[in-house]
Task: inverse folding
């Protein structure tokens, strides 16, 4: 098999850990596989460089920031390749440019546009391990760019796609995706397989492991993604196409999102298009509205409730205020003490009664559901924040995820 | 004027010093000049990276070492450019590759083959300060290479040549070239101007400032080189073509080289070509033979004396030994307690009696001259090491270099 292995900052956090990564790669090679390694900067290094830049400017010029930050991954890639060569494993270190990664020109937040895998392929064909500096590429003018947060994962997934690799392993300090957060429910079980779609909905469960951007790219490029730990031999979780998952459980996991705030608009003018106006204004400010609930009161006026991420609440308040001032909304109310708990599973599509079962589990614990939103593979419930852990455990148990 | 300014590791040793460099550049820009800046890695950074590499291997793979080390200069270049932009001075950071520097493929010791200055020129024409990461380039396959010791100076000189810059300023912690080592002769004076040829002969006086490689390149590309301090406003020393120096002093400086050892070959076989054989054998081992003296003894046998750098003495001894074993040389003798003191000056060409005056100065101090070697612009004398300082002061005073 051709395997792309990506090691994050913690996995290459010091020289001994880089040696540990080299040993891992050796093991994979000894099992008969071809390996391409993608590495992040040593943990702390990127933050140090950012602090350096901010010493000179609160808003450092972005092209320079990219050249600066890209050096961190190059150091790790060089060192790992030196270690592999020393172990008698022929290896070559490549920068993003050398690996053929071409991106958009948007410095510090570039998107991968194209990968020319010929240099990597040539080295692989020559029996070499290719070690690529993650997180970076060049734009069409040959300027160094970086890919933003989670960028090395994106490098790895895109490289796996371009090389048509059999597997893309993302190594972190977590050994996979769990049915729910084990800090809340110790009975949480590691998932063996999960579909791209479920993973996207369970984002909070993978938050420390994978960004949605990477899962989306894996889905698009049809890359089999594995998240596993660089500190243990445990098998990780395979994120793959729905078809590749034999037994699809009704519910795969329970996710909790405590960073939501509820916005209540009371007495919204009864005029066609007013809701669209409000949500357009929010969208223009890039505020991510999640669950939306519209109700008509006895007096004929409309109330609209919705949730936004807590850190976007202030912006949302300003926009609501402008509608209140124009007399389009009578009054508004805000509540940050809410949480969103969700059950996710592709099996839901073919199973009736999933939502009902979830509501019953909540009722049995006397937890009031304030808002509900559903999709084909998800049921989300907005509840009072203080019931968060209780709700997670109740759902985890109701759907027998601990079995 | 278009000025290339190069700042070494000490000059960019920490963030405050990088800011100090930015202020220097600003001053030059405010004087109406166009500026290209070439920077080294922050002092200590390159050694840290080498130690990292050596953690994994005593002989780390050289392509990887180049990628590793080149990151140091990139960090400095990015930070300086960020600082300049923040000060309202439009600036762009460039890697060696982006600056168009193409080198040979010999990793860690590459030579600059060609510079395509078009990207730099375009940025300069757009009113930008170009900040180039020194010490590095790419070979024809696009792999990162580094230029070895003194590499950033070479980058600066080569860039100045390619851009036909009016001046190439090398900033260090020393404010120029002195008539002799001020630690030996406190009356030493800073030279205002000196020719390339004199500088090459006075290498030991510039040892802490400039490598001969850079002076040779400056000579070849006809680059006006200035060495000056980044920590003071003092004018430096201009190293330029002989024609650009109006008043050519008879003697420009007194150099002292204490790292020489004397090799004495007694009773060398009287056979044509034997001397050539011996010196060829030394050349094959890359031993730099300096002063050579051949004498014929009363009994008709030949003695040959020569000097070699102290650190090459052991190698030289082995070669001599092989000739002794073959019976080509009767015996050998070695002396490490010698020193070579030299007076250098282009004015010597047109002045008679310079050597005589030097010998008189030595005689007046009762210093025995063991060997003599002269060139058009230099008189070197090998003496007992214990007279080193005395000899330097005597010559410095005899040629009125303190005036």
Result:
């Amino acid at each position: 098999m051709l395997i792309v292995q990506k090691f994050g900052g913690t996995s290459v956090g010091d020289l001994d850990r880089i040696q540990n990564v080299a040993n891992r790669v050796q093991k994979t090679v000894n099992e008969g596989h071809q390996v391409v390694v993608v590495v992040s900067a040593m943990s702390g290094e990127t933050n140090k460089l950012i602090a350096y830049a901010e010493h000179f400017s609160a808003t450092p010029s972005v092209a320079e920031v990219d050249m600066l930050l890209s050096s961190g991954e190059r150091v790790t890639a060089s060192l790992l390749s030196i270690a592999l060569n020393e172990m008698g494993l022929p290896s070559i270190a490549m920068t993003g440019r050398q690996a053929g990664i071409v991106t958009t020109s948007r410095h510090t937040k570039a998107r991968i546009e194209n990968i020319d895998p010929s240099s990597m392929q040539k080295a692989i064909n020559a029996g070499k391990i290719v070690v690529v500096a993650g997180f970076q590429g060049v734009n069409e003018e040959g300027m160094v760019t970086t890919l933003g947060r989670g960028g090395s994962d994106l490098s790895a997934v895109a490289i796996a796609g371009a090389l048509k690799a059999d597997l893309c392993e993302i190594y972190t300090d977590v050994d996979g995706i769990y049915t729910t957060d084990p800090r809340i429910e110790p009975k949480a079980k590691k998932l063996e397989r999960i579909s791209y779609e479920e993973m996207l909905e369970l984002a909070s469960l993978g938050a420390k492991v994978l960004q949605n951007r990477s899962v989306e790219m894996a889905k698009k490029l049809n890359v089999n993604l594995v998240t596993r730990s660089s500190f243990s031999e445990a098998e990780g979780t395979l994120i793959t196409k729905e078809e590749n998952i034999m037994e699809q459980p009704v519910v795969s996991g329970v996710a909790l999102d405590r960073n939501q705030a509820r916005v209540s608009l009371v007495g919204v003018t009864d005029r066609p298009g007013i809701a669209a106006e409000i949500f357009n204004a929010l969208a223009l400010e890039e505020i991510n509205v999640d669950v939306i609930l519209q109700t008509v009161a006895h007096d004929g006026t409309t109330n609209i409730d919705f949730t936004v991420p807590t850190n976007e609440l202030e912006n949302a308040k300003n926009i609501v205020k402008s509608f209140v001032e124009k007399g389009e909304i009578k009054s508004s109310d805000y509540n940050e003490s809410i949480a969103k708990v969700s059950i996710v599973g592709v099996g839901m599509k073919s199973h009736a009664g999933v939502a009902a079962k979830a509501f019953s589990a909540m009722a049995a614990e006397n937890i009031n559901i304030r808002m509900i939103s559903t999709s084909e593979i998800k049921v989300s419930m907005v509840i009072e924040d203080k019931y968060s852990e209780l709700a997670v455990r109740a759902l985890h148990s109701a759907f027998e995820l601990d079995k």
Notes: Chain B has a mean pLDDT of 94. Chain B touches chain A through 39 residues (CB under 8 Å). Chain B has twelve helices and 20 strands. Residues 9 and 44 of chain B are 8 Å apart (CA to CA).
